[in-house]
Amino acid sequence: MTLYGETRPPADDRPTVQVTAVTWPIEESQPPAPESPRRPRRLRLLLAAGVTTVVLGGVAGAGAYAYAGDVPRGTRVLGAELGGRSRTDAARELRSELDRRAAELGRPLPVRVGERTVEIDPAEVGLTVDVDATVAAAAEAAAHPVSRLVGSRSVRPVVAVDVDRLHSTLQKVAGDQGRKMTVPAITYAGTTPKVVHPKPGLALDPQRSAEVVRAGWLSGEPVTVPLVESHPATTADEVDRLVDELAKPAVAAPVKITTSRGSVTVPPAAIAKSLRFGADKAGKLTPRLDVKRLRGALGDDLTRLEVAPKDARLSISGGAPKVVDAGRPGQQVDGKALEQDLLAVLPKADGREVEAELKPVQPEVTAEKVAALGIKEKVSSFTTRFTGGLSSPRSQNIATIAKKVDGTVVLPGETFSLNGHTGERGYAQGYRDAPVILDGKLVPGVGGGTSQFTTTLFNAIYYAGLEDVEHKPHSYWFDRYPAVIESTIFWPDLDFKFRNNTEYGVLIDTSYTSSTITVSIWSTKIYDSVKTEYSPRRNITTPRTIHLEPGPSCIPSNGINGFTQDAYRVIRKGGKVVKREKFTWRYDAEPRYVCGRES
Question: pLDDT confidence of 21, banded at 50, 70, 90?
Fold first, then answer.
């Protein structure tokens, strides 16, 4: 048996173990070769064992050599030899190579988007070589022992980029070359379906752009980023089918809703107002029946078949809040079930009737819930004065809205809307004509005076430290209100909203006399004090005189100066200021209106 091995440095200086020949012992059953005397069996076994040991020793040595370090021998990244090194050493070597190439890696990268080309600073879009990820990739470059032992390989560096920053930069380059996707739509003009067919969009895809830039950064060549076409999920044919199979037949005839308390007929016009075809971002068009819109279209017709739940009511008695009405559950149509049932019958020409289930509905505010809300003390109170006594229409409007709001409980985190709470304030709701500001002048209008209540309520929540969500001061300043800290209201365009930004419930308590309106807020006191600091008035303007045609609609006024002023809400807690909020308003000079022609 002959066995020999030698290690020679090949051209790339990587050692290679060569095994050139192995001759195994001759079997005992064969005659011995003439030149060699027959060896004893023990000697032959010893020789075989020795050969095996030598072979295994060589293989073990080669394996140890091949698996030295974490990175396979012969592995290069950006020309840096990382083979045979631990991951830590390989990372150190790669960082050194990146430092040597800093000027090269920092060169502007030419990027083409559509018909435009720009040079991008790699640092501005976060283009870097991820050293740890690159070393990990290099360590996995050759897992097979033979692959680790022989040959060489070049591993591409793993490139990182800030996708959002890159996308923002490329969008500026793209400019108006793209186009927005036209999402499909089906709407109604009366009871006639109107269709918008989908059209594909052309825009940058952030992930695709990042992929292209990462791949091309180190190539030394300009990179072309594609504008990607995106098609809406619902096709034009599918839109037409929805029109033929649902939108048109839906409004072809009425639908009857029957409950255990009676029935209501839904006319095609009400169906058209409540049947919606909404498209998501992908352009998928989905029909749905908006039960809230249906209720609005039916007015009180559906409400008459239901029993509204009644909230528990609090009232101030003996200087403390007490439950005066425990409330009661109600019965309402199951909206989700009604939507599905209506969508099922709307495509049909016959059998357009659904059975609507009346489900028990608990009041939002129960007596048990009120007891746990921490409504225990008066937090703030504010009063404004009016003239004319309770016999005047304006005073009666103030009293009407005050009664509507009295006893309202606003839960923690809930936003209160005055328009949402009272609904429309018209003749049917008990409001009367009184002066309102319209187009800059006082004219008779239903609900005049409700702005005074709004201002009183605003000040009450303001001094309670509650969050102002929406309010708008008057165009002119009236001295019955504090400057800046006041609010008008007008249905449905101008609203007043505040949020209960505490962990306790808030009770709004209202009261009035023949000359005053008072709003008090009851809850748990959080702050030491809430006060207002004013800046001096500035930009003062004087009123001009305007002559109007005399008549019932003409209301004279003396005129009021205009000015700008700041009000600061200063909130203290624990002996220090915890919040300082600035409110600023510019008042116009109210003209001096004269009912009669200029003499």
Answer: very low
